[in-house]
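As noted in the main text, all predictions were made from sequence alone. Below is one such record, for Acyl-CoA dehydrogenase family protein.
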Amino acid sequence: MRGPDTPVEGADPEVLAAVDTLAGRWGGRAAEAERARRLPDTTVTELLDAGLLQLTAPPDFGGTGHSWPTLVEAARRAARACPSTGWVIGVVGGHAALAGRLPRAAAETVFAAGARQVFATASATAGGRFTRVPGGFEVAGRWRFCSAADHADWFLLNGHGGDSAGRILIPLSAGQVRVGEGWDVCGMAGTGSRDIFVDRVFVPGALTGSLSHCFAGRQPSGGGPSPYYLGEVPFLPYVNSCVIGPVLGCAEGAFAACLERFARDAGGSHPLEQPLVRDGLTESAAELACARHLYETVCARLHTAGTARRPLSPEDAAAIGRDRAYLARLCVRSVQRLVRLAGTAAHFADDPLARHWRDLQMAAAHRDLDWARNTAAYAATAFDPGGAGEPGDTGPAAGSAVPPTASGCERTA
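Prediction:
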């Protein structure tokens, strides 16, 4: 029987061992990260030194080119100790693959210093704009929700390039961006998902990429497929699903914190012997077991399609969206029950259970986990007559359970 510590198929055990070794340090800094509203510099250095932010960077540019399950499983294990650290591994770490999917000239530019870099993304504009000018685009304005902005070497900005250009992706170096303060939140504060500001920067057209091209499937470079499939498959369902590792790990960390609390003999009350506590813990454990099953199913669908170098069918893409959204629902429901069982003592700011609960609510609000949005996509495929399309359909909706205009970059609901 698979347990919570059994790695999903396709995950590199050496990477997971490195995460497990460092996780205790990250957990010890979780309160510090929350107060500072960013990960400590020491943590980011550890992530880079261990190669955990380079897991999906293309081998062509010095990356390790790991599989998608390695990324999400590393994020899941880190999030048990510090959800913000898990988020940065899974979500921000996944951006290294996106950087490698830029047009060749742009990818060579951003990876000129090697793969040991932090790539932040932003697609939630708040007045941010791209204006076509001779030779390229002028970038100006404000973008929101840039996780790890304080530590980023590059920012991959998403927006409309005008009627003829559609949505495009533009990389800017850290020196071309001002990082604002806008991240005074009650959950996932340690991710440092701040606002960024750009003051009229010119970007040559050769360094900009069509969003549809960056996410599309492509032929392998070098004449044949390599073990690194994230540079070849349609990418949107992979990047949209990176959040499931941090969400599940956060809920598992909350359960462990709750068990530790109840195992302590508080004034002789022996809470683990109380029927109400045992009943609640059992139901929450069952929900997390179901969430783990959905997590493994999503990982298997994506990894199987990736290794076969095939786009997801519309049915698979819709099921992935459904499963990741329901996984988040199960995690929230499970931890909410734990918080009720623990009572008011679980709401002190530095209490690990309280922190995991705050972080989980914020993470579960991510757009890619929105239940209504994902169920609409699933219902259109599963229940509408002819909604699934013909077998083997690889049109715009194939491989994605979200509208084709979605960015796949950092965003929330």
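The chain has a mean pLDDT of 90. The domain at 119-215 is CATH 2.40.110.10 (Butyryl-CoA Dehydrogenase, subunit A; domain 2). These features were considered when defining construct boundaries for the mutagenesis experiments described in Section 2.9.
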